[in-house]
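Input (Site-2 protease family protein):
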Amino acid sequence: MSPIVTATLVASNLGLIFLLMTVPLGLRTVRVSRVIAVNRQRLWQALWPLGSDAGWSGEILSAELLDGQGVSRIMLSWEGRDGKPIERRARFEDVVEGSRFSMRVLEDTALDASFWKDYRETAELISEGSGTRVTLGRTDRYRGVAFLVFRYFAMRRELSKLERWAMTGQYRKGGWFEHPLSQVGFAVLSALILWPFFGLHLGGLALAAILTSVVALHELGHMAAFRLMGHRKARMIFIPLLGGIAIGGRPYNSRFEVAFVALMGAGFSAFLVPIVIAASALAGSEGHKGAAALLAALAGCAALFNIANLVPVWKFDGGQVLRQICPGPVALALASFFLLSAFLAVGWRAGFSSGFLLATGAVFSILSLLTMSSGVKPRYELKPIRTVDRFAIAGALLAVFVIHGCGVLWASAQLL
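Output:
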């Protein structure tokens, strides 16, 4: 890609990341409304957490009123870090039986109380003809539009599932967005969006498909790590242009778990890159130059993508690993400086210009600043990492970095 195209792609990603994760939106209320052809009382018993049908979706396991001030204890089916259901304490206000209520979360066993400081949810039911207009509202303080948009579509889905349940008595889990076929479609869309950046020809399409495959393999590594850490559910979601994200089935339980899951994205590909390099060399020795070049491009793309993910940016895998294994801010700063310097050194040896590398370092610094305040604080501190595990993860990080660094240097020698 030309410098102008590269700069455009990087600037677009930075702008999207700022818009999705960082831009301050203040206190916002999201509302969705739908008329459901069912009587109001049946819907009230489903939406009211203390109602007889509150478990219609399987989300609420039990709920009980604790005092006369509207404080209640709600047990949710979502797994906490200990594998047990999350327990939530909430206060109900403005309750009109059969018509409306609002709820504030006081605390739960998963997230710090500060997460719920500005959160409020409401439900209102109004008879309309032979049906009922249901209006749901969620108020919160947002940074970035991603979570706001997520809540909007989550509420739309909740109303759709409520309508289906009310009409048929059946609840259907999941939805079209996370369906495997939808995710394959998003992956194809991601490749098509990337295609113009590599040139609108067959070679450009191949490179776009390779990059999309590399992202999928990276997230597959995270999913495998989640499974090894005891997450009974793990899934991957493709986000066109921005890449993909692997999601576990419960909150993290320990610092070792965070570091292991973060490292396994690049760690999984570290097993594949040497195999692809060997296959490329074999194809070249057999005279299959096209296949050899394609495999070399795959190895180079995988190595470069994964080594870039190990850079110590706050939300990148490398940053997450270093924050778990470094015993203090001084050690974290030194390790971050060493890792970023090593990355830039690999880029210099691979033939990238000094100006490009300086710009890359600046971009990574900006990314770290943009994303450092986007984390969610857990209710309780994660279990500390043992010294032996700290050194094991550090050694694995170094090994994965070296493998991908060698992959970048090898591919640059073959393709440049």
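Residues 255-285 form the longest helix (31 residues).
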